[in-house]
Specification:
The structure holds two protein chains of two kinds. By secondary structure, chain A is an all-beta fold. Helices cover about 0% and strands about 50% of the residues of chain A. The chains are: A mainly beta, B mainly beta.
């Protein structure tokens, strides 16, 4: 069965410092991997994804993530954190869907979320 | 990306009543999904809604409690029936843009409090 682990409930970073939010996954085959961000009282916003190709994926708001197949990880990174980056971050995995998929095949499985707090 | 709206954005309801949440997308999509996010928790998929067919429910969710409609390719509703305080959650709809390598985009969510 697919699963996603975010080992840290909270990450605290000083503004201007680099940040890393960790994610590891367990899935058979080649997964699709995603990061979403949820600001207080808001829905989920898509940040970036890895489908195939270059292991370093760049996304919105200066975030990037590195896919590491041998370590089954997809950590989210940003070189210089902003106070406005403070939010809840979710990693998600999805099986590549077969051509005739239907029902619940290929659905997103979310990690439990990591709260990022960036202090001035 | 899709523009997705949900109504209502929040509501406070009494135990035993029902609430219908609407999800509207600005373009036609194949798949629509409904998720629940309980306080302090991650997202859990309730069901997948295809236009013109019955919704497919995940384990632990049943149609009598969470009936779903999908009358066309831009709209869906989720009803939370016979509510109890345990139903207090954020309910989110999402859509699956097949043309964008299976990325799901989410609506702003409906924050439900049941007293």
């Amino acid at each position: 069965a697919q699963s996603v682990a975010q080992p840290e409930d909270q990450v605290n970073v000083a503004e201007g410092n680099p940040l890393t939010v960790k994610c590891t996954y367990s899935v058979s085959g080649n997964p699709y991997l995603f990061w979403y961000v949820q600001y207080p009282n808001r829905g989920l916003q898509f940040l970036l994804k890895y489908i195939t190709g270059d292991n370093l994926v760049k996304g919105s708001y200066g975030f990037e993530a590195e896919f590491n197949k041998s370590q089954t990880s997809f950590h989210l990174k940003k070189p210089s954190a902003l106070v406005s980056d403070s939010a809840l971050y979710f990693c998600a995995v999805r099986d590549p869907v077969p051509v005739n998929y239907g029902g619940s095949q290929g659905n997103l499985i979310f990690g439990k979320g990591t709260k990022l707090s960036v202090k001035p | 990306s899709a523009v997705i709206s949900q109504k209502p954005s929040r509501d406070i309801c009494q135990r035993g009543t029902s609430l219908t949440i609407q999800c509207q997308v600005d373009s036609q999509v194949t798949m629509m999904f409904w998720y629940r996010q309980q306080p302090g928790q991650s997202l859990t998929l309730i069901a997948t809604a295809n236009q013109g067919s019955e919704a497919t429910y995940e384990s632990g969710f049943v149609i009598d409690k969470f009936p779903i409609s999908r009358p066309n390719l831009t709209f869906s509703t989720l009803t939370v029936s016979n509510m109890s305080p345990e139903d207090s959650s954020i309910y989110l709809c999402s859509v699956d843009y097949r043309g964008q390598k299976d990325t799901q985009y989410f609506g702003p969510g409906t924050r439900l409090t049941v007293l």
